[in-house]
Amino acid sequence: MKENAPKETWHKTACVLCSSNCGLEVKLDGNEITRVRGNKTHVGSKGYTCEKALRVNFYQNFQGRITTPLKRLPDGSHIEVDWDTAIAEVAEGFKEVNEKYGDGKILYYGGGGQGNHLGVGYSMATRNALNITRRSNALAQEKTGEAWVEGRMFGAHTHGNFHEAEVAVFLGKNPWHSHGFDEARRVLKEISADSKRSMVVIDPRRTETADLADFWLPIKPGTDAFLIAAMILIIIEENLTAKSWLSENTVGLDETVKAFANIPIGDFASRCGVPEEQIRNVARRLAAAESVAFYEDLGIEMAPHSTLVSYLQRVVWVLLGNYGNQGGMSVHSYAAPLFSYKASGSEPTDPVTGSLVISDFFACNEIADGILSDHPERNRALLIESTNPVHSLAESEKFRQAMRAVDFSVVVDVALTETAREATYFLPAATQYEKVETTFFSASFPENWICVRPPILAPPEGVLTEPEIHTRIIRELGLATEEDFLPLRELAKKGLDEFSKGFMEFSVNNPELAALGAVTLYETLGEVLPVNMRGAAVLWFSAQQTALRYPTQVKAAGYEGDGPSLGNSLFEAMISNPDGVLFTRHEQDQAWDLLETIDSKIHIAIPEMLEEVKRLADSPSTYTSDEFPFVLAAGERRSFTANTIMRNPEWRKRDQEGTLRLSLGDAEQLGIDNGSRVRITTPGGSAVAVAEINETMMQGHISLPNGHGLSYSPAGGEPEVFGVPTNELTSTDWCDPIAKTPWHKHVPAQLEVVEP
Length: 756
Prior knowledge:
The protein is of the alpha/beta class. The protein is 32% helix and 17% strand. The protein is built from 27 helices and 28 strands. Helix 2 packs across helix 18 and helix 19 (482-493) runs antiparallel to helix 20. The radius of gyration is 26 Å and the shape is globular. The relative contact order is 0.14.
């Protein structure tokens, strides 16, 4: 990074507004990002980007940025504190909690957002130092039901090859806006234009993706389980299953088939509002295809029967033999795992609430209730990074109260968010364009990629990166001295091969320092990396682990060496190519080698799920009432919605207020016009929004966008709230019985016009 680079220079980076992390090239004028375009040489996105990425300057440059640590006083006000004092008091605050209550009463919440995952590696040093064993993040209110199912069936995460799939199925997902795979809109258009391929969309709303689909199933909100269960029995009854393939590659087929024997297809079709013949036509199209790829998302993962639906949709494509085939579904490689499946089927439980700790994540829907209880094992302190749970978790006020109830809390973030305002300490961090960063979202197969982005700007004075913050905490805790790292620093100066040999010996002889992992790498290897890439030191370990897991596939991706030398080759490529690199290249049939089940077969029968299937006919298909007759989708993806890192509402070219969308029929019945102010009331709360009559909405179904309702001060004074904070309307009581994921997309509600 050159401080005085000419304006004509295009700097390579990536979008940080969704998990696709499309490659970008940007021009700068001082600290302003003045132009943005897709990076055509990016390994994944190949020049593709959507309209959101063009507005990233609103993330980088916002009003009221804090550049010094803040300490919250008992009256709720804040005072500025210098970094030395802040680090000392943060370290002491957590130590006091451990001394008073014993280890294990501190919860770590976070670990990165849509574009920044390196911080979680450095947080592990602090967590190990303070014996912080409890953790959670946004994945635990979205994806843990899916993870629970995948752990049981495959022992790993699966993903579809939508670029090559003959039939693509989107379940509760609108990839036109939420993406989820490389070049999403290009791929959607290609499928739609190809007469030999088909697209199936299952969604109550006629989304932009549904407009492109060959089959749109306009399902009644929350009835996905009935539709998919009916489809499974149709596949079985019409002999559409891949019999010989199933016999060879699955375990538990007979008991699975038996569990669906009494599904009332006609009744279930009526419940979900999709004609039986249409369901049959889709089942036949799936069965006739050479390859089928499914993608589920929050539309079903935050709605009734969410874990069951995650299971049922996988039963569909397994019954049709769509694992490991080109264009189908597969487990994929990873540079660092987002989930752990080691405890699948024997998960521990939260000692306070009793809920499952899935993939090492405590159910975030129950964090506040646990803290506010009188249980002796409840959390007594919080360390929160790069996330905003007061705004993003169900029943926001409850989490506010929980933060005030703990003895100590620290938030590390770029902005003084709704969560940061409640913390004992706020530590201001660099933005994702002011530090080296990467993510581990890529789930491509047979080739997979990673992109390590150098910083394109320097952080303002007084702001630190997460690696530096955690390193200072470790120093303050007295767990390492300068002298401890001198031998490894000297080896790092001699090159990666010498460093690799010395690191192994160092770890054996110094287990306490080895437990500090990323900080040890930052203090040693980081010293010889380019100054703006020091935070990438933690990736050396990721590269070594990747080379150890997939040596043949790493070599096939173009890297040389054996053992640590192969990992070093990969690491050097990762940190020196801002376009990103392929890190593995598999052969198609090696998909079976990636299964992590004990016998390398698909375990199609999950007893708990099969019991739910048998009880499904007795389950309700509606959760509305006379008092709350509408279903509110609290958090719809739209053209200009993102997560809460985009705080300035002016980034939205349209819909800055975040309209409440409803159907024409509902509007006429209630006397609502476009632009009317409407009060939404739910069992969890009440809010007022501007109405938008929208032809894509089903009658009885209403929606509010995600990412609104943030406090922001355009002129630098007292902050205002723009739009509806949807989690003032949700409730922690409405959640999945297994994963405890909340029903953000299925909130019973009522509407009334607010008189002007």
